[in-house]
Amino acid sequence: MKGQTSFETLFLLIIILSSAIIITSYYLSIHDETLALSVARNETLNQIAQTNSEITIKNITAVKNTPVVQITIDVEPDTQLDEEKISEAVKKATIFTDTVIIIE
After folding, report:
1. Bridge pairing between strands 68-76 and 98-103
2. What is the Cα–Cα distance from 67 to 79, expressed in whole angstroms?
3. pLDDT tens, residue by residue, 54-99
4. Nearest in space to 91 (alpha carbons), one of 22, 47, 43
5. What SS3 state is found at 80?
């Protein structure tokens, strides 16, 4: 009887640890995408501040296909921003090795 109780306890421990690992890895995956969006937004705002004109970020989205992330930034009115500078900032702050920035 003691052997069966030990086996059941071990089985429950394996289930709990596996769940914790899966949840943690999912959380970290979401964190990287959110961090990439935040860095891209901050760099975009820095570039907008340097233009001394009224520009609005209408929308910013990210599509992730690890290790590539595609970030689309919709600004109004249409403005020329340095996509390479935004891409480099995202690469430095996240695990994504390749970023594609699209300014609309």
Report:
1. parallel
2. 28
3. 888 899 988 887 678 889 999 988 888 889 999 899 888 888 888 8
4. 43
5. coil
Residues in the chain: 104
Q: Is the pTM of this model over 0.85?
A: no
Kindly report the number of other CB atoms within 10 A of residue 82's CB atom: 14
Closest CA to 67 of 40, 96, 39, 88: 96
Q: Give the integer Cα–Cα distance in Å for 59 and 87.
A: 17
Instruction: Write the pLDDT tens digit of every residue in 8-64.
Output: 888 999 999 999 998 887 776 677 788 889 999 999 999 988 888 888 889 998 888
Query: Would you state the structure tokens that stand for residue 46, as one six-digit string?
Result: 């820095």
Joined together, the tokens standing for residue 95 give 């695990």
